[in-house]
């Protein structure tokens, strides 16, 4: 029997056996978002012990589902909004209750009822595990939240901090081609500074923005996000009058700017290396963009809820992962041209500067124009690597693409939040087009990856036939003192990709 209409399908049951907890993002047809956490308490081994597991004999598994081994609750704590993805799960022997314990202040919430001994209560959702008669596959369904229609699942992501290793430090044999001092793991500053160690998320954000070495930037991002998720920071700190200010432009280490290879001259395998290098550079800026949106706009928007910081710390961590994946692939495929040997550009930061006056503009231009453009071009990039037979890079790029859909989703989520905050009459589509008109030059280029954009919340009416009208004078005014040349990087680097 089909589940009642108020349930939506989450996933085939078997696919939830890979991890014990997942983050879920739902979106209603009115653009309302809901973030949830799914806990699966039994291990894969438990299920493997079912003799007919491999055959997916579902009558037996239905009893597993009915044992309520899978729980869904709000992803943010009702106390002060902490991210519950790293909550501890505990069982109380006296009552038999199983609770999720918030990492920030240790309030416990019953996974079935949502009740806490503190008197607070979070929402929990009924979960059903049923066989889909259409394909005879056991699937997990959850009750939809109240207050919205036609909810759909737009993200199902395992909670995991598994990560590509930090990017290789530049111990490559560049001394003969690039006589600069290059940092090695031994010469990196400590991840946690020995003096004035950050205590809030805002302090970590500014420290990471000021960290020039990319390896250290990645390591600090991993550490800060882990501290945030596990409740080991004093606070987010965006409401503090002493929140530190982010730099206008994040510094870059000289050794990573004095490129030694002219992209047009590299051939064959190295043309893929040029592409990996260019992509890694974009990811390095993207790490900074994720921290910058928190550090720059957090203090000026004290009403931003913790969920905003959960989304953008996740983005910072993802971008760090992407940078590590790409630089690792670069080292593997072209050991003589590691990260830092080719020209890089900073055009993303130009857009960051142009939008530094307005959170709404930042979300529109960086996350819903630039990042959405990434969704359009990723399939073509992946195809180039596939044709070259580089399966490992294909796998890395597919991970990156999937993550980037969720980044555009976050952009859409907080852009619509900003519009709702300004009043019911502010239509997100109109507001977005207006931001692009004022803060972008030229047309918003296609061809568009309509499907991926739609998955992220960007329907065609957002971006079709859209032109930016920002004039040169206005652009220069917004850029103020920012000059790419001062950074030692170029606005654009012509990268010639070899056709295969
Ligand atoms: S107990 Fe969760 S935020 Fe305080």
UniProtKB/TrEMBL annotation:
Domain Rieske: 69-138
Keyword Iron-sulfur listed: yes
Keywords of the record: 2Fe-2S, Iron, Iron-sulfur, Metal-binding
One Gene Ontology term of the molecular function aspect: 2 iron, 2 sulfur cluster binding
Keyword Iron: yes
Ranges for region Disordered: 235-255
PANTHER family tied to this protein: 3-OXOACYL-[ACYL-CARRIER-PROTEIN] SYNTHASE-LIKE PROTEIN (PTHR42782:SF2), SI:CH73-314G15.3 (PTHR42782)
Protein's UniProt name: Rieske domain-containing protein
Organism (species): Mycena chlorophos
Species lineage: Eukaryota, Fungi, Dikarya, Basidiomycota, Agaricomycotina
